Amino acid sequence: MDSENVKLVNQYFEHFNNHDWEKMADMYTETAEFKDPSLGPGIVRQTRAQTAQKYSELNGVFPDLQDRVVQLYPSGEKHVVVEFVSSGTAPDGSAFELPICTIFTVENGKITKDFTYYDNFEE
């Protein structure tokens, strides 16, 4: 049986793929901690509103943005590691596929930390 945390993370990706950024952002605590190369080095605190805005803007650039979950790895009581591939089409018509790994920390049914790792290559 899937743990509550696994169900929550599956729901998260469902919201992502539906481009329902407000519902996705609501899955975080009011202010959550992020590690994401696009936000800079180290840990960055972001509000739900900032998270929704970030993905809404990203969706504006890549209208067909999708995440395909490859595997979920539940770890202990508070963590789920997710291996997934993000894909989309840029305005110039070029398609991309980016393998990503995220470690979610879930406490009391909300995501408190989102530590994401991917190759942040510059074109």
TrEMBL record:
Domain SnoaL-like, first and last residues per copy: 9-112
- Name the domain of life this protein comes from: Bacteria
- Family matches, as Pfam families: SnoaL_2
Protein name, as recorded: SnoaL-like domain-containing protein
Species name = Pontibacter actiniarum
